[in-house]
Amino acid sequence: MAVTPNTDEAFLREVDEELRRDQLASMWTRYGRWLIVAIIAGLAAFGGFLYWQHYSAQTAGEQGEKLQVVYDDIAAQQFGSAQKPLEELAGSKIAGYRAMALFTQGDLLLEKDDLKGAAAKFAAIAGDASIGQPLRDLALIRQTTAEFDTLKPDVVVNRLRSLATKGSPWFGSAGELVGVAYLRMNKPDLAAALFGQIASDETVPETIRQRAVQIAGTMGVDAVGPAEEKKAQ
Q1: String of DSSP letters for 64-113
Q2: Higher model confidence: residue 85 or residue 22?
């Protein structure tokens, strides 16, 4: 005798499947358009990123070529033709090219003995947080050099103290300025100690070491640098 099917179980299963279909249809009706928008937005963002990479690389190449032309013009003493592209590069969104353009403008102003104008260019680099710290430190030294005669000695010391320490890549340049500032502050003992450190540091350029030896010598300090020691041997 045949077994009577469980119609209640079959009916409930059919209702359950219909309910799931209704739920999926309802979710698609409610959220489907937003899902499509999200997918489109994601694709647009990815496409924009790829375009930005391409644009950045292309822009960097163009600005690199422009900066090379500027240097060629300067080498050929054609300073007039270098001014406009330098102004454009000084406003570049690429930090490296912006810094190099500002450095070049500052150097050209120094050659014209425009210390105030040059200091302003170097200060713009030193105060730009988007530029690498080594370039900002160098710019601060150049700015201080241009302003040195108008600055109080304690301002020089406070500005460059962190760079005028052994191990700093700018120890020689910054230390020399701080040492002279100490002399102006009537602190020859601090100046002599600093010039002695500069003279004995082989990482400092030789011309700066030689000046350090000479200045220390005028104060009665025997600060013989590595180069002088080798000569003596």
Answers
A1: HHHHHHHHHHHHTT-HHHHHHHHHHHHT-SSHHHHHHHHHHHHHHHHHTT
A2: 85
